[in-house]
Amino acid sequence: MSSPMVGKVLKWCSVPFLALGLLWLVGLFLYQPITLLLLLPLAVFCFMLRKKCSLISILWVSVAGGILFYLCLPGPRPDAWQTPWAEAPQCSLDGDILRIRKVRDFHYRSETDYDVVYRDETYNLNDLQGVDFAECHWDGMTAICHTMLSFSFADGRRLVVSAETRLPIGEEQNAIGGIYKRYGILYVFGTEADIFRLRTNYRHEDLSVYPLRIKPQGARKLLLHYVRLAEEAEAEHIPYNTVSDNCSTGLVSAFRELVPDMPWRYDLLPLHNGSFTHLLYRAGGFQTRPGESEEELRQRCYLGYDLAPDNREEYSAAIRSRINR
User: What is the CA radius of gyration of the chain?
Assistant: First the structure.
């Protein structure tokens, strides 16, 4: 095949990718109106190229210009965040002592009616005893879930870490909008009576909690990894991204610290994080009973709705009673 023919074949093979790029560019104009400033200079530039370049080349230039502009956009810094994400945790480490200000512990009467409560807590990392992996599904979805970790300490306290979409006031979460730096990302440090109970008792989402097979030193690495992520997100105003920086990207990077030779394909898990439980089960990452199948583990660790409905202080005990039954 001659070189000109190869060039034509390659050019037309790129058309589907160009279509995706143009679709993404339309979304950029819709979700980041400031990019409309690009339209005039981009139109002038394309007009100048019209006799020198093919239409496909001009369209690729347009997509490339949009990508460059997007990369230069800063993360969101609104005047105020919505109440559940208004306060970022503040962490400090002194040897084995981890101090966290703004540990969230909201008291709910309904999903939208609650008392805003934050606590200042001090944790001795030598007292870390274990970690639970939590996955939360909603609306019957199985491929996508929200992932969290819950760290247990010798004194009975449990600290949940949940990477969440940080919404400015007036914004509603949208998966497509989440691609275009509309939202922030916040690593919420909170209690199970807040973060888990909100989902099981008030939103009635499907939450499962699986004890990880992990040594205390590994638990320490996981927690400190999330502390670093939380500090970076706040200091650098890192935006949430539905694809590349969501609730599970931190989890993958944390596991990679524990298992450096983890196959690269696991880096794609944030795109289909509903597979986390299956892969962790296959890798022997959970504390299972002898001969316990994956389905039996799922049934045992599924929490159901309305745990300890009348006593939030008994909520964590109700979880362990459920999964240890």
Answer: 23
Q: How many CA atoms lie within 13 A of 224 on its CB side?
A: 19
In sequence order, the β-bridge partners of residue 124 are: 97
| Predicted local distance difference test score (pLDDT) of residue 8 | 55
List, in order, residues 6 or more apart from 58 with CB less than 8 Å away: 46, 49, 50
Residue type, 115: D
pLDDT along the chain (325 residues), means of 10: 50 76 90 81 73 76 87 91 97 97 97 97 97 94 92 97 96 91 96 98 97 95 96 94 90 84 78 88 93 96 94 95 88
| Closest to 106 measured CA to CA, from 197, 200, 231 | 197
Here the contacts of 227-235 (C-beta below 8 Å, separation 24 or greater) are 227/91, 227/93, 227/98, 229/163, 229/187, 229/253, 230/88, 230/89, 230/91, 230/187, 230/189, 231/91, 233/88, 233/184, 233/185, 233/186, 233/187, 234/88, 234/186
Q: Which residue from 294, 286, 325, 78 is spatially nearest to 186, judged by alpha carbons?
A: 78
What's the rounded Cα separation, in Å, for the pair 325 and 209?
A: 13
- Can you tell me the distance from the alpha carbon of 171 to that of 46, in angstroms, rounded to the nearest whole number? 34
Name the nearest CA neighbour of 185 among 243, 123, 269. 243
Q: Which uninterrupted H or E stretch holds 193? A: helix 192-197
Q: In the prediction, which pLDDT does 262 show?
A: 76
What is the pLDDT at residue 223?
97
pTM above 0.85, yes or no: yes
pLDDT of the residue at 3: 53
CB 80 within 8 A of CB 169: yes
